[in-house]
Amino acid sequence: MTITQDSSAPLIVVVGITGNQGGSVVNALAESSKPYRIRGLTRDVNKPAAQEFAAKGVEVVAVSLTSDNATGAREAFNGADITFVVTNYWEHLDVNREVAEVKMLIDQAKTVGVKLFIWSGLESIIKVSKGKYPNVHHFNGKGEITEYGRHSGIPFVNVQSGWYASNFAKLDGMKPKKQADGSFVLALPVGPQTLLPVLDTPHDYGLFVQEAIESPEFGAGSEVLTSGEDITVGDMVSQLAEITGKKITFARIGDEEFLAATGLPRSVALEVLESLKYHEEWGYYAGKTTDASRRHLARPTRTWADFVKSTNWSSILA
Ligand SMILES: NC(=O)c1ccc[n+]([C@@H]2O[C@H](COP(=O)([O-])OP(=O)(O)OC[C@H]3O[C@@H](n4cnc5c(N)ncnc54)[C@H](OP(=O)(O)O)[C@@H]3O)[C@@H](O)[C@H]2O)c1
Ligand SMILES: *[C@@H]1O[C@H](CO)[C@@H](O)[C@H](O)[C@H]1NC(C)=O
Fold first, then answer.
1. Under CATH, what is the fold of the domain 11-163+199-227+285-302?
2. pTM greater than the 0.90 cutoff
3. What positions does the domain NmrA-like occupy (predicted)?
């Protein structure tokens, strides 16, 4: 642990320390050989994750970063050299709210003189697909925010998050489903050759933020594309079967069948469906490769197989 209180060390303000990405950022910076002061933000300082970080020397601050709370955001960012910002679209499903909140945060960070604004963005699928897939709001909104940040004048870096490996263990539409004969099928509305930048997010996302801060090849104006490894969904299913010793096969299913299987309201399920089809046709990162972004990491990332081995599948594959 090199979290310091020494005022000569840069102050990094991290949004969402109780979550997957923000928690990973704090852990990576704490393990860096460089010293950092870390201020971690949450709406609830009593959450166990917040308390654990406080015990490790993180200054934990309560704030709700809604667009009507510019004053709260400015206070939370005050004195920061670097800010890391992630949103949680899935908590409210309101893209206008997501965009308004981060625009406000960019403006406030600029006001207090932040020297590097690190943003967890995603591609605008409506733009890349030229309107073919218009409904993936959790990507499109993040793309709009990235453009705003790039034009805002603040030193800005976009550290895009890869595909969470945990999606295949947690989401109803993606988990392997038990068949009448006792085997399992992982069914998606895309072909087995669909390539995904799979990331064990809590374990590894922060490494890429650390790289954006510490590696001279990245920093302001750059983009970091995170991935533990790029692997096809077909290969993921074969490896899952091999490692767990269960009979699991991949199946391509129709769009309507997939929409129903997600268990989500139709408009939300449509986001997931269109995002998968976009990944198949254009690639998650719109055809950009992740190699350069993996070159200066402080330690190796987990592969899909590593993630499978470190996950308890007993209730999922029961
Ligand atoms: N699933 C995927 O494959 C995937 C891939 C790429 C990107 N993403 C994106 O990842 C994002 C979620 O990131 P995550 O996994 O780190 O989320 P998470 O684990 O659910 O954590 C969200 C964090 O944001 C904080 N937060 C939310 N609203 C806040 C507010 N109004 N004020 C202050 N803090 C707030 C929460 O803090 P408190 O609750 O403690 O206040 C929490 O720490 C989503 O936007 C999603 O689109 C997902
Ligand atoms: C704004 O943030 C402050 C912390 O700086 C907090 O006390 C307050 O409740 C927040 N206000 C709103 C409207 O969320």
1. Rossmann fold (3.40.50)
2. yes
3. 11-304
